[in-house]
Amino acid sequence: MILEHAQVLVVALPLLAVPVCALLPSRRWPGQFATLVAWAVLGFAVLLMAGVAEQGVLRYQLGGWAPPWGIEYRLDAMAALVQLLLALIAAVVFPYAARSLADEVDDGRVGGIFAALLLLLTGLLGIVATGDAFNVFVFLEISSLSGYALIAMGRRRRALVASFRYLIMGTVGATFFLIGLGLLYALTGTLNMDDLATRMPPLSASPTAQTALVFIVAGIGLKAAVFPLHQWLPDAYAEAPPAVAAFMAATATKVALYVLARFLFGVFGLEQLLEVPALQSALQGLAVAGMLAGSLLAMRAMDIGRILALSSVAQVGYILLGFALFSTAGLAAGLVHLFNHALMKAALFLALGAIVHRVGSGDLSRLEGVAHAMPWTMAAFMMGALSLIGVPLTAGFVGKWYLILAVVEQGQWWLVMAMLVASILSVVYLWRIVEVLYRRPAVLPARHEAPALLLLPTLLLAVANLVMGMHATPLVEWSMRASASLLGAGS
Asked: CA 56, CA 198: separation in Å to the nearest integer?
């Protein structure tokens, strides 16, 4: 009975909690309430993943209307994996946010900011849960609007500019996506994604279908910060409150990439994509450009938040490269790296937030010797950095290793070289941070670690990077299952 309705409850629960959270009077209660909701969502996500493992694809008809006329929630292996990731990140980041945001924002804004966080979580979960293409757009806008508000909550005035830039770019991306959906509806007369996948094969060669594909890829590419559509991301993540940046960096672009994979392989289908010869080359070129450009830009930045944001552009390139191989192994490798990158980037941003909480800045010029005062925080940062580089026994290594295997399977050695160069560049820009933070100043600072509620979630994610690097088999096997299922459904 619980499993039957869990598909709706996992989205409805945080949505219903939004007004409650906004009206809670105490500055401490909204964070605690949001944390309880996040843990409940995690419980539903685990339950649903077990259901998918046992029963296969789970379906839920809203209002009793059968698809394609009614809206259907549909959870397959890929959706269950991303849904679990969203719930896991929320369950870890929300307790951190309950401590950090209470000190960073005014009393009257605490309830509002946690309401926005819950609304962001609702939108992201809804995107993953729904089987209706227009619902994807609706939930995408819910998550985007709450994201704009959260970024504007940053402590510096530049946060407003970053939020406005994100709003403009996000609106353009949403418009492109909606135009693509409109063209698909005009061509097929349906918006149910399973129904679209059935009706698209005989229509895939039409100019309307190919135009829709271009608009959808461009719109979602902008939402996912695919190079060169990434311009909104560095300022947005650098200026947002650290807890918000950690949550968004670990989830928002990942869900956008999920949507890209869902439409490419689950709606248009692999056979149809191969009929557009320039598409695969274009996606691979953009992926490589993102990997290299993001890393090069990160080498020039002086603010840790901006460095981490630009590194996300590079990591999006890695994930996109896996998708652009148009193979089961490539898609699975992309999903593995998508999951693991969320863990490493959340750990890095939470560690940065702990440093900012103590020092008041993420600018490298003000952080000399901080590692001597905050050894545990820096240990967590180092684990995230090693994972980002792809050092063996870390989560980042697993994703990159399977990406290399997928590339070698196709004999594209130039892509292997591009990945190695990008990884070397990541060593350079991360070493700049480590060198400054561990540099021994003339007078050693007194040991002054972050508060426990900031440190524990950070360490938990750091340990998760090590665990996922040493015990990657379940994630890899599930990703292979998800990849085979999606490519089979779309072909």
From this structure: 19
**Would you place residue 443 in the very low, low, confident or very high pLDDT band (cuts 50, 70, 90)?**
low
Helices 413-438 + 375-389 axis angle, to 10 = 170
For residues 255 and 235, what is the distance between their CA atoms, to the nearest angstrom? 20
Any idea which residue has 């994201």 for tokens?
147
Closest CA to 390 of 382, 381, 399: 399
Residue 189 — left, alpha, or beta (φ > 0 → left; ψ -120 to 50 → alpha)? left
Distance from C-alpha of 340 to C-alpha of 399, rounded to nearest angstrom: 7
> Taking a C-beta distance cutoff of 8 angstroms, is the pair 41, 6 a contact?
no
Which has the closest alpha carbon to 331: 341, 339, 320? 320
Q: What is the dihedral sign for C-alpha 235, 333, 403, 267?
A: negative
Domain segments of the chain as ranges = 276-491
- Token pair for residue 171? 């609106």
**What pTM does this model have?**
0.91
State the burial class of residue 294 (Cβ atoms within 10 Å of its Cβ: 0-12, 13-18, 19+): buried
Q: Residue 433 has what pLDDT?
A: 86
Distances (CA, A) of 7 to 2, 47, 87, 375, 397: 9, 10, 13, 42, 33
Q: Which band of pLDDT confidence, cut at 50, 70 and 90, is reported for residue 491?
A: very low
Peptide bond into 68 cis (omega under 30): yes
Residue pair 178/119 in contact (Cβ under 8 Å)? The answer is no
The answer to whether the beta carbons of residues 268 and 213 sit under 8 Å apart is: yes
Per the omega criterion (within 30 degrees of 0), is the bond before 228 cis? Answer: yes
Answer whether 330's CB lies under 8 Å from 400's CB: no
Q: CA–CA distance from 323 to each of 306, 307, 316, 418, 446 (Å)?
A: 26, 25, 11, 16, 48
Q: At what angle do helices 328-359 and 304-324 cross, to 10 degrees?
A: 170
- CA-angle at 10, arms to 8 and 12, nearest 5°: 65
Of the candidates 367, 338, 375, the one whose C-alpha atom is nearest the C-alpha of residue 432 is: 367
In angstroms, the CA 455 to CA 381 distance is 11
In contact, 173 and 259? CB cutoff 8 Å: no
Helix axes 395-409, 375-389, angle to 10 degrees: 0
Mean pLDDT for the chain?
Answer: 86
- Comparing CA positions, the residue from 200, 77, 83 lying closest to residue 133 is 200
169's tokens: 């770019």
Structure tokens at 103: 């000190």
Which residue has tokens 């003339």? 442
326: which 2 tokens? 């148009």
Pairing assessment for the beta strands 72-75 and 58-61 based on DSSP bridges: antiparallel
Phi then psi dihedrals of residue 156, to 5 deg? -105, 155
3-state helix, strand, coil in the chain (%, to 5): 80, 5, 15
